[in-house]
Amino acid sequence: MQPKQNIIHLPVYQPGKPIEDVKRELGLTDVVKLASNENPFGSSEKAKEAIIAELSNTSIYPDGASVSLTADIAAKFDIGTDQIIFGTGSDEVILMIARAFLTTGDETIMADETFSQYKHNAVVENATIIEVPLKDGKHDLPAMLARVTDKTKIVWICNPNNPTGTIVHKEELEQFMSQVPPHVLVVLDEAYCEYIEDEQYPDGFEFLKRYKNLVLLRTFSKIYGLASLRIGFGVGRPETIRYINQVREPFNTSRFGQAAAKAALADEEFVAYCREQNRRGIQYITGEFERLGLSYFPAYGNFIMFDTKFPSAQVFDGLLRRGVISRARWSKYPTHVRITVGSQEQNEKFISSLEQVLQELAVQV
Ligand SMILES: *Cc1c(COP(=O)(O)O)cnc(C)c1O
């Protein structure tokens, strides 16, 4: 028995540590998870009601084409219903894009520290991966453009970039899109776009009107707080979406996911509340970083990557012992930790724990 040669050394995804594991292993009662950019405020009450209303339909297959949710999204963003594809999270849309477009010998370009699933799925399809170094934590679009060849199939742009949190600006994206050849599919991952109010942040839908070779990725896992229901979507030109649809599993998203997403999309008040709380959280945390003399990348999503100046695994462990689950161990950033913006109470627990950890580590040096 032999699997595909190219997956033999592929690691299994390591998720953020679950709260229950940490409580059990460390004997703690109060644990906060600020590791996976989940919404600390849960989800819209209307989404919860929609989930409950679906309970009586569990024996019936979901609508494979998500017709009702598709119509709502098409209306909200003023696009055609044939421009949208759903996945079990945008993770699955990434998988489907790779499956539909990449094969042996194809080249695909991404940043050297970005969302892990672009590379993961490209490896599975045996494509050649070209990683372009981030510059000051930002996508270096001119350098990415310089790596485009006749063999390039997909360029992945994560905006804001996970884990650094930085954004590419409108003009930078315009420069890039106007020069990238039309045979290259550009995937713009906007998982955190609903958090962003900055005028420099590009509106993917505006770009989609002018550039055929673009696909946007959106998700209900972040500001909408529906991560466990696994639903996200891709938006592109009908011909692109059709190819992706051809490799989709017939009933990939669930009734609960579709119903909750529909209700969540309509609850703009909840989204606005989360955006405002997140803005305040960033203000508080970065203010504290400045007090502590720590540098950080400008944060646009619901997470902040900062430089601890110690090996990040030590800071991660110290935070964990105090009941704060963070995210660390990025090879490009050995002293950085990424923290999700939580509720004010969680943010305060994080900062006071961090202060203790850094003091403890400073004494050991
Ligand atoms: C969280 C995240 C996603 C995927 O989320 P799903 O839960 O699969 O929808 C995609 N891209 C980025 C950059 C993310 O941070």
From TrEMBL:
Catalysis: reaction(s): L-histidinol phosphate + 2-oxoglutarate = 3-(imidazol-4-yl)-2-oxopropyl phosphate + L-glutamate
Pfam family, one: Aminotran_1_2
InterPro entries xref list: Aminotransferase_I/II_large, HisP_aminotrans, HistidinolP_aminotransfase, PyrdxlP-dep_Trfase, PyrdxlP-dep_Trfase_major, PyrdxlP-dep_Trfase_small
GO molecular function: histidinol-phosphate transaminase activity; pyridoxal phosphate binding
GO process annotations (BP): L-histidine biosynthetic process
Domain Aminotransferase class I/classII large: 29-354
Modified residues (N6-(pyridoxal phosphate)lysine): 222
Gene3D superfamilies referenced in this protein's UniProt entry, alphabetically: Aspartate Aminotransferase, domain 1 (3.90.1150.10), Type I PLP-dependent aspartate aminotransferase-like (Major domain) (3.40.640.10)
Cited SUPFAM superfamilies: PLP-dependent transferases (SSF53383)
Pathway where it operates: Amino-acid biosynthesis; L-histidine biosynthesis; L-histidine from 5-phospho-alpha-D-ribose 1-diphosphate: step 7/9
Signal peptide feature range: none
EC number(s) recorded for this UniProt protein: 2.6.1.9
Cofactor names: pyridoxal 5'-phosphate
UniProtKB keywords: Amino-acid biosynthesis, Aminotransferase, Histidine biosynthesis, Pyridoxal phosphate, Transferase
Entry similarity comment: Belongs to the class-II pyridoxal-phosphate-dependent aminotransferase family. Histidinol-phosphate aminotransferase subfamily.
Assembly: Homodimer.
Protein name: Histidinol-phosphate aminotransferase
